[in-house]
Amino acid sequence: xxxxxxxxxxxxxxxxxxxxxxxxxxxEVHAIMGPNGAGKSTLANVISGKDGYEITEGDILFHGQxxxxxxxxERAHLGLFLAFQYPVEIPGVNSMTFLRTALNxxxxxxxxxxxxxxxxxxxxxxxxxxxxxxxDFLKRSVNVGFSGGEKKRFEILQMQVLSPTFAVxxxxxxxxxxxxxxxxxxxxxxxxxxxxSFLVITHYQRLLDYIEPDVVHILADGKIQKTGDKxxxxxxxxxxxxxxxxxxx
Amino acid sequence: MxxxxxxTYGSKEATSGDYQYGFATDIEMEYAPxxxxxxxxxxxxxxxNEPEWMLxxxxxxxxxxxxxxxxxxxxxxxxxxxxxDIYYYAAPKSQEDGPKSLDEVDPELLRTYxxxxxxxHEQEILAGVAVDAVFDSVSVATTFKDKxxxxxxxxxxxxxxxxxxxxxxxxxxxxxxxxxxxAYAALNGAVFTDGSFVYIPEGVxxxxxxxxxxxxxxxxTGQFERTLIIADKGSYVSYLEGCTAPMRDENQLHAxxxxxxxxxxxxxxxxxxxxxxxxxxxxxxxxxNFVTKRxxxxxxxxxxxxxxxxxxxxxxxxxxxxxxxGDGSSxxxxxxxxxxxxxxxxxxxxxxxxGKNTKSTxxxxxISAERGENTYRGRVAVMNSAKGARNYTQxxxxxxxxxxxxxxxxxxxxxxxDAQVEHEAxxxxxxxxxxxxxxxxGMTEEDAVSMIVNGFAKDVLQELPMExxxxxxKLLGITLENSVG
Lengths: 249, 485
Ligand SMILES: Nc1ncnc2c1ncn2[C@@H]1O[C@H](COP(=O)(O)OP(=O)(O)OP(=O)(O)O)[C@@H](O)[C@H]1O
Ligand SMILES: [Mg+2]
Fold this sequence. Notes:
The structure holds 2 protein chains of 2 kinds. Chain A is α/β, with parallel strands linked by helices. Chain A is 37% helix and 28% strand. Chain A has a domain at 2-90 and 165-248: Rossmann fold (3-Layer(aba) Sandwich), CATH 3.40.50. In chain A, the strands form 3 sheets. Chain A has a 6-stranded mixed beta sheet with strand order 6-9-10-3-11-12, sandwiched between helices. In chain A, strand 4 and strand 5 form a beta hairpin. Chain A is globular, with a radius of gyration of 18 Å. In chain B, 58% of the residues are buried. Chains A and B meet through helix 1, helix 2, strand 7, helix 3 and strand 8 of A and helix 8 and helix 9 of B.
């Protein structure tokens, strides 16, 4: 369960999150929609502990524990995963090595034994099959020269391998063709279970046909302006932000 | 775009790292008196039981040295060296009669090498690697000598080669780096004390990696090693050197000369992992690493590769080079140089194309952190005779933080019209976005930096012999561990 309470966050003296509250119980998928510049990625970054944001008020609780003072890697070890809107290139670093280092770092932090090559390979191969990723793909450097769609697919692969308890997906659907969208959505749905929750950030109602959310929020001007069920996304698609949330858009 | 996308990582204050090899060995030593003069040279020569011709050669070097000023063109800054305040000979007393069989090596020395991760007991050693261990001025042990001898390979301290293989020494010593080359080379010629000698006979593929491990221990002592490797026709050898020194507040001088000779169709791969003590964050102490390394590809289609991973030394002045004399010969220089604390490195390569259709490749990866200064200095010269010569040079610099610097100084000098010479250079920084991405995936700040830096240096690291590639990766990680945060 993740609870965000009256969160205020600034960048360079500009307030971007202005009192945002949101609770996602275990097992639920919440979607966030909102106009460009509303603060969606900022929220994802602040939850994950990225440097450069000043939290002036409020709190973020992860399974009842405040994470505000934790380093990004500590939050990751607790089971938080962020699928990036813009996955980052790491030249010269083999994707397989990267995945293995990430998984073992998490296991080590949680007092589990590091996986040997064979065990690790089994996990990765399964995830690759799920996401229809070709074998030689992971020999390439992390995100270097990946197409937009490949980058997003690789994010979901990482999510499957790291098996988080709470995942934030920041516009994972942007740039995906229709087949890839289905594959990725399926990759998310496979992980849905009562102990796991998701926050799915998207601009398009279409994604929510494949990943059915329990709750839909509209974020604008640094706050949740409206909350509803999946029909809210349909209404938004039909009428636009102005009509649904008025001035805040 | 997301927040902070253009920000770079690592601009915070530097901290000094722990240098894990900084211990000193307490062992009874024999020294020649401090200072440099003809008597000292005669003393060294006598200690090594050298023939008259060797002494003459040394004295000639000394005369040349006296007439030469230290090179000043490098982008490094240090107070004048008092050459009379240095010991030119320091040897563990127990080793007075030169290297013995391993059973007779002083246990204190064996322990020292063990602590350095270089066990000299053959049964414990990395399988397939023969080691020559040089402690201050003498070689203390050479392993696997017998096995190598079966293949006809000579691998021994150079002092021994002077006794046992004078014809090879007289023919090749100074043939690649003449005594007149530069002041440090002349100095080395006068006072060199030990180093390794390798001869691979015609058609022999050396059955194991050869490696020399240099350790400077004694205070105020210079290490002047001399290495000579000769690969006869159609032979192959891969050689690796490693270096460490204790942490001391005084600077110590290391002025080595390495000469490689490759005959027709021969190939030499020379790898260095240099981790001399770098000094502290204020620039106090550390090794002055003033080294002349050069290969002569005299044979047709011969091949030499220099690979270096340089993380240590207060000052590095070093340009492993290839003279491509033989037609169709090729030279490669692959380098990763890290400067942090207040380290200064001026390093690169010279490729001199003389023969027809000669080829050279230079890949230099400079990493600067804290207040480190990193200069790539290279020269590609294509003589009129070198028809069809080709060179490719790539210099990449990575900066961590805002107080370090990287410079690239390529000289290109082409005298024939059909040569092809390419030069590429990039400068990059570790971005906040990269750091956040890796940390979000659970890696610590140190592991993230290590991963990014190793990725940056991959083109070079992957060329190292397997056993050492892993070590080198770890070394890069450990070296930069304290440069972050
Ligand atoms: N470092 C920064 N300095 C100044 N403003 C910033 C910084 N980072 C983000 N912002 C601003 O904060 C606001 C929210 O940005 P954010 O990336 O969270 O939007 P978003 O909702 O994810 O938009 P999109 O749908 O386009 O991805 C934007 O107006 C953006 O310009
Ligand atoms: Mg966004």
